[in-house]
Amino acid sequence: MRDSALNNIRVIDLTRVISGPHCTMILGDLGAEIIKIEKPGTGDISREYSPFYQGHSTYFMTHNRNKKSITLNFRHPDALDIIYRLISDADILVENFKAGTLEKMGLAPEKLLEMNPRLIITRISGFGQDGPYSSLPCFDAVAQSLTGLMDMTGFPDAPPVMMGSYVCDFSAGLYGVIGTLAALHSREQTGKGQVVDVSLLDCACSLTHSAIMNYFMLNEVTTRNGNQDRAAWPASFYPTKDHKLIYIHAGQDPAFAAFCHISGNESYAEDPEYMHLNGRKNHIRVCDQLVSEWTCNHTLNEIMSMCRENNIPCAPVNTVKEMVSDPQLLHRNMICDMYDNNLGTIKTTGPVLKMSETPPKIQYSAPEIGEHNYEIYHDRLGYSEQELSALKAAGVI
What we know:
Radius of gyration: 25 Å
Oligomer: single chain
Largest sheet: 6 strands, parallel
Helix content: 25-40%
CATH architecture of the largest domain: 3-Layer(aba) Sandwich
Shape: elongated
Distance between the termini: 39 Å
Strand content: 5-15%
Structural class: alpha/beta
């Protein structure tokens, strides 16, 4: 068994906030060496984002484990040579500046690929590297707004609702990983690196499911649908006798037949208007009423037991407090321990990927600002202690 899937892969990380750091964190979980370059003094802006635990931002810690941090003032004229030296033997450069920023820094991809033809340059931005919006700033909610994701979320008689987490940032990070790994595979065949261009807006657009096809082919605009599934019925959230909320998906025909059996509604399972999905779409309210009348007469645990015994998908609407003690997530190590030099053992989200030969690992928590300056600048790049002192005094590092 190898130590890791990305053993001996070196990544120069010029990212901040979520999308870029999440991308490089996953590469780090997979075993790549991540060298995170941060602004001296303040570092990644997300280090300042609340909430804080003993002075440390949980926002920052969530996306920056398995990384080494060095400080470098990009605006200093002597910084460019240092970056060139870092990139000369790197495999990957990841950045999530606004389009064009890399070029303004003297790091145009064409120049970098001349210096290191095997380099993979993964660029994550709000709107991509070209197009009419490319120079504009973008955040997750902007991408949600522009693509209709926000207009699709919520109840029909209420305003649009922002999704509960940064789904566009996360998906941009994931697409960044996918593109980077694909480019690595291509490099194995051609010996050549390339540029990977990922946009939050594009990622948000990809999350709209079949909305684009539905619009052009069916003249249908996808709108807010509350908690009701868009393709199968009954499938929604229902109240219980003990005043809880449970999600039940009895929309597939076998599940609906099973529901009719356990709820005493066998006649509906034999009714041509209800026994098949295409018929039930004309009776969504009746289907929901059947389920809610049944759930209101049983406790959450009773419903969960009966549904699971009859292979009907269901789930309680958990709080975060309930989620972190879920036995399946605990079994899958999605809530796991991570050691931090300052904080000791802390809890974090575990790696999503499970791999039989090269499983991802959490080796260490998010670094302190410039924690690895000496290791990288002195041990790796060969700067003497006197040179490092001079660079620090000049405000370069």
